[in-house]
Design goal:
By secondary structure, the chain is of the alpha+beta class. It has one helix spanning about 1-40; strands at about 50, 55-65, 65-70, 75-80, 85. The longest helix is centred in the N-terminal third of the chain and has 40 residues, at about 1-40.
Length: about 90
């Protein structure tokens, strides 16, 4: 019986550490990923966006996972939808 209590007491710190990791690392990362998915789903033509590389542009077309950005008058680039990091203000 003393052995089983000792083994249980050895697991308590591991469970506590997992709880800390969950609330400080895993949960906030999942929340941010969910917000980013919502941003990409709500993306529409005419939105001003910033890419992960820091390029500012206006969405001129969306074709599935490919977004065409107008970064200057008459200059269009195609990027993956996942590389849009935020809406420009």
């Amino acid at each position: 019986m003393a052995n089983s209590q000792s083994a249980l007491m050895n697991l308590v710190p591991l469970i506590f550490m997992f709880g800390i990791f969950y609330f400080l690392l895993i949960r906030p990362q999942q929340k941010k990923a969910k917000e980013h998915r919502a941003l990409l789903d709500a993306l529409k033509k005419g939105d001003q966006v910033i890419t992960a590389g820091g390029v500012y542009g206006k969405v001129s077309a969306i074709d599935g996972d490919i977004v065409t950005l107008e970064i200057a008058t008459g200059v269009n680039i195609k990027i993956g939808k996942g590389f849009i990091s935020n809406l420009a203000k």
